[in-house]
Every structure is written in C-alpha cells, then in structure tokens.
Amino acid sequence: MTVFDQRLDPAFFDRVQARVRDRMAEEGFDAFLTDHPEDIAYLTGFFHHPSERPVAIWIEAGGRVVMLLPELEREYAQSQSARAELVAFFEFPGIVSPFAVLATAVAPRGRVGFASTMPYERLAAARAAMSGAELVGSDLLTRARYVKFPEEVALHREAARITDRMLDAGVQLVSDAVAAGGDLPTEAELERHVTSTGTALMYAEHRNVVVASLLAGGLVYSGANSAFPHGLPSVNRLKAGDTFMLSLGCAVGGRFIEGERTFVLGEPTPDQRRYHDTIRAAQQLGRETIRAGLECREANRLCLDVIREAGLGEFIRHRQGHGIGLGMHEAPWLEDGDATVLEAGMVVSNEPGIYVPGHAGYRISDSMLVTDDGAEALTTFPRGLDDCTIAL
After folding, report:
1. To bridge 105 with a disulfide, which of 59, 87, 160, 189 should be the other Cys (CB 3.0-4.6 Å)?
2. Residues 207 and 272 in one domain
C-alpha cells in the first residue's frame, strides 16, 4: 500500500510565497506582516499552538521571508522545515517587545501591509516598533488562499475520503447497536467513535501527520438537540424515531474537509420525509449551480430559494456555505452579502439546512471543488433519505 505523506515539499512554499509577492506588487506593498496561524502555515509549513507569545511572518517584495517566534518554538519550527529565516525572542512580554526584535532584524520601511485579522494589541505593538513604515490593513493573504494549488487539492481529496469513512463508521455503530438489541449510543459516544476512526485511519495510513486545530471530529446531535445548528454532543441517547445528524470532518496536511448527513432512525414520518427531501433538493441545486464565474451571493440565493419555495423559509438559520482550506470556515462566504466571484480551484461547502424548534435539524453538506464548468463534490456519502434511514 502506498503511504500518503501529509507534508508538502519545501518547493511548494516557494510558489506560495511567489504568489503572495505578486499580489503585494499589484497592491504596492514593500512588505507584508501577518500573525494568523493559518497564514503562517500557508506561507512556511509551520503549524503551532497559538498562545500569548506572538509568531508572525514578515515577507518582503524583494524575496526575504522572516518568521518571528519565541525561542521555545525555534527547534519545533526547524523540525517542520519551516520555509523562513527564524528570528527568535526569549519570552513574552519581554524587556524588549517581540515586534521590536523583529523590527531590528528587518529594518521596516515603506508601505507595509498587515493582515486584517491581527488583534489590536499586536497591531499596536507592531506600529510602535515600526514607526518608520506605513502600516496598511489588507485582506491580501486571505484572498491569496482562495484558489488552491494542486498539492492542496490532493490533501483535500484525502481528507474527503477519510470523512466519508467516518460517516460510514457512525452509521455502522448505530446499525450494530440496533442489531444487538441493547442501548443505542449517546451523541457523545457516537462522536468519540467517529473521531477515533478518523484519527486512527490517518496514523495507520499516513506519514508526517500534521496536527491541525482539529485533526478529526465534528458535531453529533439527535432529536431536538439537532435543531441547534451548532449544538454540541450531549449524553442524549439515540432512540427510535429520532432524526440525527453527523456533521463531520478532518484535516489532512492542515487542509480541511467537512461532510454532513442527516439520518432517521426507523421509518420516516411524512414530516421527516418532507424536511429531508427539501434539503436534499436545495443541496442538489447547489451542486448543479456552483461554478467559476458565479457570485457567492447568487449561489446562496439559488440554493436557499428551494427551501423558501417549499414553504420552509422560516426554518432557515444560515447561509448556503463558506470557503474551506487551512480553516474549516474561511472566506469567501456563500451568503447574500458576499459578491466574491467563485474561481476554479476554490473549495467551498454546500450545506443548506433547516432547523425546526423542538423537533430536529436537517442539513446535508459536501465540500465542493469549484471547476471552470461546475463543481465536484469531494465527499461522496449517499445523500437521499432512503440511504440515510437506519431500519429498526
């Protein structure tokens, strides 16, 4: 069996940095500064646990890339072959502030962009240390991350394969419990099982596993608890007649995928069938309409109109979807307020849902790779109610 390697080749990060420098040139930046953990992983391949001690990247138009980090992270960054020159400070807050250490190393000047995600305290520290430069907020890096490189798409595909296996494992656990005639699992037990399935698959079949903010897992909820769109797993035990949701995903090489399905335990009622069939129809339209050249807000309207036209608009609680990459949720947003034009190579979720208070929620989600003439669903678990009914 071929072993899947989650670590990207160092040359990949040279191409990423070149893309960012091209965008810096277009927007007139001499350098760019970011402290967002996902940006740092994108630019250098360094994944870390964020804390009060800043880690930041300084990238110059001329090619220099510098990582500011605490001394205690230096060897960890080296072990990951971080694609940057390392400049370390000893401790935070320090006699000399970390950003002053960076400023001494890079001599900032000219027009410097900073990531619009930077917290105020860090931005203030950077401004104080870099008074000779003009610091300008920009979402340049956010936009640079929209379109995935082929190596990233390969990571997303593998994450989708594992997510489908996690959904299989969740259904199997419930089906086995039904066949055994004993207690059905609780939401929490089901969540632990699918999480352990995902992580076990990675460690068994991959090398250089990259531990991201969430390696594998998700939300598992049943009955009325699933009417909360992001309800956390509880000790509620599944029971006959329940609608239950497996909202799962994982990250391979730090690149996320989500796959969500809604199930019925036993013969569906007419209401359960109506709700599920409506969401399936909306999600199917999303799969058919997402494509390069379509505005995010238009994709959202087309998808959610299916629910409104079915007379269930009062139960809509959220947009059609969002971008996926180094973050499980990231821009662009498939929502009425986002006019971003979809491009080939983006990965977005397609996850319309309805939530009926006191009854249940219904949501179907696939992670979609946008193409020139459509979109490919990377997650493939069956979506129809007949396939998502567990017989008693």
Report:
1. 87
2. yes
From 199, 252, 250, select the one nearest 8 (Cα to Cα).
Answer: 252
State how far Cα 13 lies from the chain centre. Answer: 20
SS3 at position 243: strand
Same domain, 134 and 190: no
Are residues 208 and 101 both part of a single domain? no
Residue that terminates a domain, selected from 119, 144, 169: 144
Omega before 382 within 30 of 0, i.e. cis: no
Distance separating alpha carbons of residues 251 and 330, to the nearest angstrom: 14
**What is the domain extent for residue 231?**
150-390
Cα of first residue to Cα of last residue in the chain, in angstroms, is 38
Note whether 172 and 87 are same-domain residues: no
Q: Are residues 96 and 135 in the same domain?
A: yes
Q: What's the number of domains the chain is made of? A: 2
Q: Taking Cα atoms as reference points, which of 117, 106, 105, 88 lies closest to residue 31? A: 106
State the chain's mean pLDDT as an integer.
97
| DSSP code at position 84 | S
Residues 140-157: pLDDT tens digits?
999 999 999 999 999 999
**pLDDT, tens only, 10-32:** 999 999 999 999 999 999 999 99
User: Which H or E element spans position 309?
Assistant: helix 296-309
CATH of the domain at 222: 3.90.230.10
Residue 213 has pLDDT above 90, yes or no: no
Checking if the pLDDT of 2 tops 80, the result is no
Could you tell me the CA-to-CA distances from 127 to 106, 111, 123 in Å, in that order? 14, 12, 6
> Is residue 10 located within the same domain as residue 72?
yes
26, burial (CB in 10 Å: exposed 0-12, middle 13-18, buried 19+): exposed
pLDDT in tens, 98-117: 999 999 999 999 999 999 99
Domain boundary pick from 88, 111, 144: 144
Q: Is pLDDT of 1 > 70?
A: no
**Domain containing residue 17: CATH number:** 3.40.350.10
